[in-house]
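Design request, tokens follow.
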């Protein structure tokens, strides 16, 4: 695993010590001796993790961390604060400034490397999501990332898996009014509970009498539904090796007992904030893809989607020697509707037409807005005679009930012309199939409108 690590410390010997350790693990190392230089490096270069000393002159590590986390361009970079301070209040202050973790000097090599590798993996995931979000559409990525994803004012739903009643009661008391906390005393039941409920964090105790908690962590990481769910391990003093192994397996954070209430809430808040951040990126990517293939007015697929999928459906039908039919519909005299009732009225007609069209086709049929007032329906496993009957049913559905326009309840009569074609045995192509349907539609329009014409050849 390679990554670019920024080491920030005003003491050259400390910088050199960390640099040597990281270079030995084949990381690329950048250095800075003060806060402003560290911020500039993060803004101008690709930094994967920041190892930040707290005690620096002029601008201390807390302020550096706060500035990095408040800037959308650098807020996604994990920050590990390294300090000689060992008070809980200092850790909480760092976490509240946005730090992802806290290490105390002298830093244990194994803890340092496992923590850095864990955060590098997390950063890689976030970078991939950011890249997808910014390249699928020009969505204003900085504006998206600067939003507050309700991490402070929405109570997170959290699962605690712990078989010790006294421990459960203490944590329930600590998180009262801070989290919607569910409890599972049995680790097997807790696994299924985590898989079936959209928790924003799972806390797992290491103090099970006869169960390995890391197995539960591994199972949660291997399941698609829980792969990105934050896991916090609640460990006992002396369990450093188990914690390191847990970080290698993909846990996000850990707390040592006795647990401090402020540190627990701060670390939980950090994990929930990051999860919501990445969830928002995933949702943005999904929404972008949907927008790219969906007609915004009618909710049907658009022509781009049709162009990319019709060939696939055609090839499948030919390979399996199964029928496939296509219908092209066109609203009659739609320009007159727009001229009379305006584009708002025309849009209402298009939306209602799409609703009726969707109601009269199957789930496996591909209904798309082809452009303007033209719509295409691709019907797999459908013979031409059946497709013609479906087209006639749609034509009748449109003609028999008037369309409402405006808020005053006014209605107008709307009709539609339909052209139908089917895949021919022997040599045929998508272009020829669509051409026949288009010619059939032209015949329907020129033959008086409000009719269906099927083109056999």
């Amino acid at each position: 695993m390679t990554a670019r690590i920024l080491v920030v410390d005003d003491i050259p010997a400390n910088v050199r010590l960390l640099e040597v350790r990281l270079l030995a693990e084949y990381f690329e190392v950048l250095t800075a001796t003060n806060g402003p230089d560290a911020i500039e490096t993060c803004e101008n270069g690709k930094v994967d993790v920041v190892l930040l000393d707290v005690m620096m002159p002029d601008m201390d590590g807390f302020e550096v961390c706060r500035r990095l986390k408040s800037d959308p361009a650098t807020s996604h970079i994990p920050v590990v604060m390294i300090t000689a301070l060992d008070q809980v209040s200092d850790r909480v202050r760092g976490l509240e400034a946005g730090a992802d973790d806290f290490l105390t000097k002298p830093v244990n090599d194994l803890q340092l490397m496992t923590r850095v590798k864990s955060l590098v993996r997390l950063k890689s995931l976030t970078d991939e999501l950011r890249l997808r979000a910014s390249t699928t559409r020009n969505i204003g990525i900085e504006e998206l990332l600067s939003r507050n994803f309700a991490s402070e004012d929405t109570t997170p739903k959290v699962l605690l898996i712990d078989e010790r009643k006294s421990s459960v009661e203490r944590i329930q008391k600590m998180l009262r009014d801070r989290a919607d906390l569910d409890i599972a005393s049995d680790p097997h039941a807790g696994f299924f509970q985590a898989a079936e409920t959209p928790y924003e964090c799972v806390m797992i105790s290491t103090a099970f009498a006869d169960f390995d908690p890391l197995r539960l962590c591994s199972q949660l990481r291997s399941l698609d539904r829980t792969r990105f769910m934050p896991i916090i391990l609640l460990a006992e003093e002396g369990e450093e090796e188990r914690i390191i192994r847990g970080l290698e397996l993909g846990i996000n954070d850990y707390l040592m007992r006795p647990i401090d209430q402020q540190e627990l809430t701060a670390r939980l808040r950090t994990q929930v904030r990051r999860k919501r951040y990445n969830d928002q990126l995933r949702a943005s990517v999904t929404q972008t893809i949907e927008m790219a293939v969906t007609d915004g007015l009618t909710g049907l697929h658009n022509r781009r989607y049709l162009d990319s999928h019709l060939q696939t459906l055609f090839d499948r039908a030919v390979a399996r020697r199964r029928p496939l039919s296509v219908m092209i519909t066109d609203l009659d005299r739609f320009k007159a509707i727009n001229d009379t009732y305006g584009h708002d009225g025309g849009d209402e007609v298009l939306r209602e037409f799409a609703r009726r069209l969707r109601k009269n086709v199957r789930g496996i049929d591909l209904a798309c807005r082809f452009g303007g007032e033209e719509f295409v329906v691709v019907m797999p496993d459908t013979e031409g005679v059946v497709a013609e009957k479906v087209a006639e049913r749609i034509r009748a559905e449109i003609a028999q009930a008037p369309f409402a326009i405006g808020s005053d309840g006014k209605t107008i009569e709307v009709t539609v012309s339909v052209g139908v074609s089917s895949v021919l045995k022997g040599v045929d192509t998508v272009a020829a199939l669509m051409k026949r349907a288009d010619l059939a539609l032209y015949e329907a329009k020129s033959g008086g409108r409000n009719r269906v014409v099927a083109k056999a050849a």
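Comment from the thread starter after seeing the answer: thanks! Residues 1-120+127-143 form a domain with the Rossmann fold fold (CATH 3.40.50.2300).
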